Structures are given as structure tokens and as C-alpha cells.
Amino acid sequence: MFFTCSLLFLSFGTLVPVEGTQTFDDVVNIFGDKLHIMRPGYQEDRPVTVKVNMIINDIVMDGFKPVMTLDMFVRQTWQDDRLSFKNNDTMSTQPITLSGEDKNLIWTPDLIFDNLVEGFVHDIFQDNNLIRISTNGTVTLSQRVSIDVRCPLELQRFPADSQVCYFGIESYSYRMNDVELLWGDNPVKISDDAESWDFDILTLKTSKSAKFYSSGIYSWMEVKVIFQRHMSIHVTRFQIPSILLVILSWTSFWLPGRVAHARMLICILLLLGQMALSSLPRTLLLPNVPYLTFMDILMAINTTFIFLAVLETVAVAFLHRNQDQRSSDDGVARPEGGAETIPMTDFGKPGQSTSGRRLSGVLAKLDFISRIAFPALYLLATIIIYSLVFRH
Fold first, then answer.
1. pLDDT at position 193 over 60
2. Taking the complete model, does pTM exceed 0.90, yes or no?
3. pLDDT at res. 17
4. What does UniProt give as the signal peptide span (predicted)?
């Protein structure tokens, strides 16, 4: 270790130690012995102020898993007067640069992400650590890290939802009277190339506070990211097909009552298709959340309207059957085998019974009311549910 430290210092010229050191050997001994153990200012009983900056290279929010993934550069800056030095040659302002495992030669903050699921420091070729020590003792540590942090999801408004994710930073072992964390200038910056395909990043906020544990009070900082989900893909895949199924169910109101079997077949097939479609978001996308989402409510409304169309078709078939029975009682001929052969022009003939004409009027009126009521009520229900969701 003495040999490594000597090379690092000699590569930048002859060092003349400042305050607290007498010889070059003392500086090397500090690097190799004390500086990686004792924090700066411990003898003066003052905390080390650590300023933190971040540059987010990539941010991934799945939207259906409670995890946010970030790839970023984390930069920490603090003052360590024990590392201040002077240089006798022309490189008097040139800082000392360390990298890789050389980070262990000096004291560094022991920051942690308090809601971390998994993370690592990149180590392609060697550990992505950069330490720059200025002549006045200012130390900058830059690391490239990738982390997965917990992000509880609130999916009640899916797919019109927004998600709030955060990650906190604190010192693992140093209390506030030992290490104080502060945000540096322009604390968190998102790279222009960083994007999340399913979400837009609405806002990014930073804050600072303190956390209280049984072992003491610790300095704590937070980054809060607010995402807005892209609705278009979910509207295209689920909502529009479901709306079309509802509209198709209304076509049965325009078919004559004597083709009740065809009307029933159309509505039942549409109902089965809607039920299958409404199960897809839960099956393919959503986790097993114990509450209804906006998508569930929309699908339930569409399913209900198709089911009501089935009930209307059943009512028409029942009334039409009663009409047929009354017509047969009035002498309407039937072919052998019992199948009814009433031509369309037979309805409403002057010779038709009063009860038959009354039922024909009821059938026509029921279909007429359905043609207006179903679209109007469906539009009203859709407006109400959308207004409730987007009101906030």
C-alpha cells in the first residue's frame, strides 16, 4: 500500500504537506492508516458536510411491478483538510485523481438507499469509482450505480393513473452530528436520452430532513419522481374494442321481433366476447390488487350494457311468442310441424285481433325506446365515470 500511495503522489510532483503533517512519510501514513477509518473533523467535534448530486442516465418504470430501476452517476463532495497539499512544480493546481479500488485509501461516506431492492456499482474493466482531491482538501467521489428501489403502485385509476416513486439516501452508521447530507447545486438531473416508454416524467423533487432511530438522528434526503402513464396503448387495445362491442349490441334493436333467435345469438356472442376482453387487463397486465381499477369499472359498465341488451332481446322474444300464440288462436294458419309462417305483411292487418295489434305496438315501442335510451344512458355513464377519474 505504501508503494501504491507513493506512486500516486510522485506522479503529480513533490508534495509539501500542509497543517498537521511534517514529512511526506506522514502523509503516506495517513493515507494508508487513518484516513479510511476516521472521518474528517472528528477531533474538532464537527460534522462532515457531504453534498450530493446525481445524473440519471436511464430510468425504467414497469408500471405493473412495484420497482423503479435507475442507472445514474452519484457524486459526493466533502472537505477533508488532512488531504490538502502544496506542489512545488508547475502543476500546483492539478488535483490528485484516484480510481477503482484506490477509493479504500481514504475516508468516504457510507451512503445507502433506504428502500433499495437490488443495486451495484458498475465494474466493467474495473470499479467505476472516481476520486478527485483538490489542493485545498476538497474531495469529490463519483460512482456509476444501477439500483432497483421499491415503488408501491396505486392502480385505482389505471390506465389514467400517475405513480409517485421515491428513493431516500442516508448514512448507514454516521449520525447527523457526524455526517450532514446536503443537496448540491442542480441536485438531480435527468439525461436527455433517459426515457420511460410507458410513462412521462411529470416532476422530480428533492427534499431534506432527518430520520429518528433508536440509535440516534440521521440526516436523510429524498428524491421523488412523479410519472404519468401513457393511456393511448391501453385505450387502443382494450377500451375501443369494448366500446365497439357495446355499439354492435345495439344493432339488435333494429332487427324485427320475428327474428328473435338471430337477435339473441348476436347479443350472446357479443356478451361472451366482452367478458373475455374484460379479463385480459387483469390476466396480462395488472398484479393481483385487491381493489377495482378504472379499467375494471369501464369494462363492467360495458358488460352491463351488453347484458341489458340481451335482456331486452329476451323480452322482445317473449312478447313476440305471446303474439304468435294469440295470432294462432285467431285462425292464423301454421304449416305441418307447427312452424309459424306469418309473412311480414300479416302484422297489423285489419283483421288481426286487438290483443295482437297491442302486442305489436308494445314490441315496436320497446325497440324504439331502446334505440334512444341505451346510447343516451351509456354516454351519460361514460361521462360521469371519466369526470370522476379526471377530476383529480
1. yes
2. no
3. 44
4. 1-20
